[in-house]
Amino acid sequence: MSNENKRHEGGVSYHVPGQDYFDKRGLKRHAGVFSLWALGVGAVISGDFSGWNLGFSVAGWGGMFIATIIIAIMYLGLTYSIAEMSPALPHTGGAYSFARTAFGPWGGFITGIAENIEYVLTPAVVVYFIGTYMTQITGTPDAWQPLWWLVGYLVFVGLNARGVELSFKVTVTVTLIALSILVFFLLSAVFSGQFDFARWALNVGAGPTGQAVELPQGGGPLLPMGVKGIFAALPFAVWLFLAIEQLPLASEESVDPKRDMPKGIMLGMFTLIGLGFLVLIVNPSIPGGAFAYGTSGQPILDGFAAIYGSGWAKLLALFAVAGLVASFHSIIFAFGRQIYSLSRAGYFPHFLSVTHGTHKTPNVALYAGATLGFVVMLAIWFAEGGVSAGTFIGGTLLNMAVFGAMFSYLLQALTFLKLRRSFPSLERPYKSPFGILGASLTAIIAVVTIIFQLTDPLYRQGIIGVAIWYGLAIIYFAAYGRKTLVFSPEEAFAVKNREASSDK
């Protein structure tokens, strides 16, 4: 980056590199509405296969159902908001890009780090669940789980690095397979002759100390843990929708982001709402019920076993892994673009945004994000004593990812409100039908979820982890990163529009 011009403003320094800087960081346009829909649904669909069900153990079925309604409202407000912001600011930066325009460099950075935590840790949790499924299917020892994680990262980072066309083809394929398996499971459960909602879904009661206990005959209360259980279940309900907001990260690889991005986001959201509530009702209504599935790492596999027996279940579950693979592959796409965008703008080291010379994929960012996620998992695995680390990875890391997401949602909602107020003349090809109300509800529900995570001792380890991540990132940016920013598309757009706004 020699022979650069420099510009200082607002406590940060911009470098103005030559065209060769951006030539080494080019992306290809490929995605249309269908590809974007598949990317959004694929990123989330693993939440229908594993993770969400843990909410039964803290809330029972009724508490989890109400928590899911609340979280669905939050995500509708969020997705409508980003459906408005993404075509107005059609850059790879996504949430960072929106906040950068609204609140300046520090606002963009803080929002970007929240998403970075979410997108690096979410695939780590998903590949943990892939490992639990594959361990059950193949009968390999639990101690071999890290090998399944390594294989997962190697295969799907490799596919993402081979080009956007291949990446989206894989995304569409595994998403459609996952949807087919999920529909097959739901139909199998309903017509199995064993479907009994009252007997199985309501088989959770509260013990003397408030812990979940099994009611052998079912017929238990809707809210065995009371209202507190609803709040405890909120982070698990998030797992049914988590990462749908990643779609704006594909803006610079979308053929027509101003037209296609809102359609892809909202079609994906409505698909996920339908799937989420069907799974929530059907999965716990077969033998085992909400009590057994409330502690399961593979509820679809356990469901298939209840319907078809363990032999057929393993074969069917091999296909069911497609649901986890779809999300794993799609969120790898997301952290690659998210790291790439922050690096191209100088918030992260510049070398992370260099793209492949032929495939034009952010391969360095993909390798870096995958390495970080895998190292975090290995560190926990060995620190927690191997197999016993599974609870920490599947629970605490999940809650770290959810906390990062909630903070990001709060900031994105505030960003939407700020853009509406301070940038009324910004071209908006699509406008949210819920506008200020939708963004406000998103912010309120995100704050409630954050408050519960802060006050509940079960989540504190995760919060400490997020705080450390933030602390290291802020130290880096304050000491170095803020002096090396670049007029990337996100930064140039933000500076231009903030100057135009201040002139009025």
From TrEMBL:
Alphabetic keyword roster? Cell membrane, Membrane, Transmembrane, Transmembrane helix
Reply yes or no: does the keyword Transmembrane apply.
yes
Listed Pfam families: AA_permease_2
- Taxonomic superkingdom: Bacteria
Q: Which GO terms describe its cellular component?
A: plasma membrane
Q: Where are the transmembrane segments?
A: 31-52, 58-78, 119-137, 143-161, 168-191, 225-244, 265-286, 315-335, 364-383, 389-411, 432-452, 458-479
Localization per record = Cell membrane
Q: Which GO terms describe its molecular function?
A: transmembrane transporter activity
Coiled-coil portions: none
Q: Which InterPro entries match?
A: AA/rel_permease1, APC_superfamily
Membrane topology of this protein: Multi-pass membrane protein
What is the protein's given name? Amino acid ABC transporter permease
> Which organism's genome codes for this protein?
Acidihalobacter ferrooxydans
